[in-house]
Design a protein that fits this description.
With about 200 residues, the protein is mainly alpha-helical. The chain is about 40% helix and about 5% strand.
Length: about 200
């Protein structure tokens, strides 16, 4: 569906790596993968232990070649995503540190969310605020994947909200129906399942 949605784009492309994995991948694992691919594409060798470079110093990692300029890799997200960093057991603190300290975020505004407040209320995010780029849309767009799925589940039209090719795919493969939503109802997010299970013995 992502490929269909972007088939007319001249500057955005879809990488299938994450969807080809046999199980759910942590966000940091996906970022590390694309970071290594980015270095490879610029013929730069990643130095040993680079994933563990000292974040506290907020310094950029050194490369085998200082003559090549490598594009920065950022995690693009919405303001609602930024708030999830405060959800217990959803993120490992060391992962948040690496995401914000090493890579950085480009965060898009959402109605009802104060991006600056999200950053200032978090000691960790405040520490790396220079790595968090807040984007305030001058034309507000409240279309979300959740709203699209809810509309499809209710049999409502999503015409003009997603490309026609994506709508055809959804109909052809019978996804986002009331039956599929019921199948997944009550299923916890993978991070909560995984990290919650790791912490539960400590809480007993």
């Amino acid at each position: 569906m992502a490929r269909l949605a972007l088939e007319t784009s001249e500057w955005v492309r879809v990488d299938p790596w994450e969807s080809e994995q046999k199980q759910w991948c942590e966000t940091i694992a996906v970022l590390r993968h694309h970071y290594k691919e980015l270095l490879k594409s610029h013929h730069i060798r990643e130095l040993p232990g680079e994933n563990n470079w000292p974040i506290e110093k907020a310094a950029k990692p050194s490369f085998a070649s200082s003559l090549t300029v490598v594009p920065e890799l950022k995690l693009l997200c919405g303001a609602d995503f930024l708030k999830t960093f405060q959800t217990p057991n959803l993120w490992k603190e060391e992962h948040i540190l690496e995401i914000v300290g090493k890579f950085g975020l480009v965060c898009i505004s959402r109605a009802g969310s104060d991006l600056s407040q999200c950053v200032t209320e978090s000691e960790l995010l405040s520490r790396y605020k220079d790595n968090i780029h807040l984007v305030r849309e001058w034309v507000r767009n409240e279309i979300s994947a959740t709203h699209i799925r809810q509309a499809l589940c209710r049999g409502q039209s999503v015409k003009y909200l997603v490309p026609d090719s994506v709508i055809s795919y959804i109909k052809q493969h019978n996804v986002y129906t009331e039956e599929t939503e019921q199948k997944n109802k009550g299923d916890l997010l993978q991070p909560l399942k995984q990290y919650g299970a790791l912490l539960s013995p400590l809480n007993d």
